Amino acid sequence: MDNGEKDGDRNFEYTAYTEPDAVGKYLEDLARYIREGHVHLAVGNEGIQLDLGTNVKLELEARVKADKGKGNLQLGISWRQAQQNGDALRIEATGPEPAEDKDAVQEEATLDIGRPSRPKTSKRADPVRAKKKAAAKR
């Protein structure tokens, strides 16, 4: 392949200027399919099937250039299969110690956010992120 892709790797890009309602509709549809774990993107005969893993990462970046009357909101979603390597991180918050009043209630909240991912051992260049950073500097 002469476009730098490995066998089995595929890219899909789409750009259009449209009304905010249409963008909202695209995002609503995208959200629904992300929840289902499968997204198919297509324009004409070009398309790509995305089967999300069980560990999804969301990245948002926003920029406003008020002096130029423009802005930018970038949404990044990436995924990988969950890795079972350790106990789930558990965050607990408890209220103050119970008062001597027997009717006092102690509040407790628990948040279980899943298993930790494997620590990163290398910093590989991300060509998509590099392209976005170069475009943002313009």
Mean pLDDT: 75
Main sheet makeup? 2 strands, antiparallel
Unreliable segments of 5+ consecutive residues: 102-124
Quaternary organization: single chain
| Count of helical stretches | 2
Helix content: 10-25%
Gyration radius, rounded? 22 Å
Please give the number of β-strands. 6
Shape from CA axes? extended
Strand content: 25-35%
Strand order of the largest sheet: 1-2
| SSE order, one letter for each helix or strand | HEEEEEEH
Distance between the termini: 30 Å
Structural class: alpha+beta
Task: Lay out the secondary structure.
Blueprint: H1 20-36, E1 38-43, E2 46-51, E3 55-65, E4 70-80, E5 90-94, E6 108-112, H2 127-137
Which terms summarize this structure?
138 residues, alpha+beta, two-stranded antiparallel ribbon, two-stranded antiparallel sheet, 6 strands
